[in-house]
Design goal:
Length: 192
């Protein structure tokens, strides 16, 4: 596994178009087993994953894509659909046995549970992309899909809410735009 800061951060890009070549179930499995160690509040682990690599799965994903993302999905052979589970607390007996049962989160309003789930799922999604890059896989994160179609065609529980998709494989660097700037240290950071 190449673990350089270049491979994971400074040289890594968000790819749009992918070269031919799939991702095996073994690779998906290894990826999950690495990425699952991301930290989350109460160890709540709200991120859920649908790994897609079958022809039919990629066809359904293409069908769910917004127009601007369709050609990108067409080029890819594999993807992960990320969801956040607003009933994340149901796993607390395993994940957070220190929290009293039933968990206080069970009586939170759905909006509060959603906010908590998104906050922690975002950390996990970032770690997931870092893990993929560390394994030599390029990522194409993209949110532009119809959530209702994704939730109907891919998820099995109402508590799983569509988050975003990451196309996975070997990215085509000839199809990249020049890289966007990032905020300067002065604009983004305070020191005290
Ligand atoms: C949550 C999320 C949603 C995104 N949605 C889209 C999208 O729908 N279509 C697209 O082409 N790129 C999408 N992107 C890619 C971003 O534009 C890209 O990550 C950003 O410009 C940084 O590019 P870089 O990593 O190559 O520097 C998305 C990225 C993230 C993280």
């Amino acid at each position: 596994m190449s673990m350089t800061k270049e491979a994971i951060f400074t040289q890594a890009r968000s790819y749009k178009i992918f070269l031919e070549g799939g991702v095996s179930k073994e690779t998906f499995t290894e990826l999950y087993e690495i990425a699952k160690w991301a930290p989350t509040a109460n160890n709540s682990c709200p991120l859920r994953y649908v790994f897609v690599s079958s022809v039919e799965g990629m066809r359904l994903l293409h069908n769910a894509a917004m127009d601007g993302n369709k050609n990108k999905v067409e080029s890819a052979s594999a993807a992960v659909i990320l969801a956040y589970d607003i009933n994340f607390y149901e796993h607390f007996p395993t994940l957070a046995p220190h929290v009293k049962n039933p968990a206080p989160q069970a009586s939170w309003q759905p909006e509060e549970r959603e906010k908590e789930a998104i906050k922690n799922a975002g950390i996990q999604a970032g770690f997931f992309m870092a893990a993929a890059r560390a394994m030599g896989l390029d990522c194409g994160p993209m949110a532009g899909f119809h959530a209702d179609v994704i939730e109907r065609d891919f998820f099995q529980k109402d508590s799983w809410k569509y988050y975003f998709v990451i196309l996975l494989g070997q990215g085509d660097s000839t199809e990249l735009y020049p890289r966007g700037k990032r905020l300067s240290l002065n604009d983004a950071c305070l020191f005290q």
